[in-house]
Amino acid sequence: MLTVIAENRIKVGKSSSRCLRNNNKFPAIIYGKNIQPIYISIDHNIFLKIYENNKFDFNKISIRLNEKLHYIAKIKDIQKHPFKKKFLHIDFILK
């Protein structure tokens, strides 16, 4: 199973998302039934290498959050830059 290491993010919005992208990270969200949405950030280069490898099943992704919490999720939506190899945002939904 693919494991993604993420960090909590407190600030949400356009300016904080731009700041993340300038620091080689991108925003993401984890949501599901009966839980509050969890706003996270993911390192762009690490996720890009995993994504381009295409050997993994993206229906089961383990998201490790701050070394304590683990979530099993799948990718619901990916927003990419139109012509650059950059992720803008990813939505994860809990399984």
Q: How would you characterize the overall build of this protein?
A:
There is one protein chain. By secondary structure, the chain is an alpha/beta fold. It has one domain: Beta Barrel (Ribosomal Protein L25, Chain P), CATH 2.40.240. The protein has helices at 14-22, 44-53, and strands at 2-8, 25-31, 38-43, 61-65, 69-80, 87-94. A six-stranded mixed barrel has the order 1-3-2-6-5-4. A hairpin with a 6-residue loop joins strand 5 and strand 6. The radius of gyration is 13 Å and the shape is globular.
List the helices and strands and how they pair.
Blueprint (H helix, E strand, L loop, with lengths): L1 E7 L5 H9 L2 E7 L6 E6 H10 L7 E5 L3 E12 L6 E8 L1
Parallel strand pairs: 1-4, 2-6
Antiparallel strand pairs: 1-3, 2-3, 4-5, 5-6
Could you tell me the CATH topology label. Ribosomal Protein L25, Chain P
Tell me the distance between the termini. Answer: 14 Å
Low-confidence region ranges: none
Q: Per the principal axes of the C-alpha atoms, what is the gross shape?
A: globular
Strand segment count: 6
Overall tally of domains:
1
Mean pLDDT: 88
Share of residues in helices? 10-25%
Briefly summarize what is shown.
This protein is α/β, with parallel strands linked by helices and 95 residues long. The chain has helices spanning 14-22, 44-53, and strands spanning 2-8, 25-31, 38-43, 61-65, 69-80, 87-94.
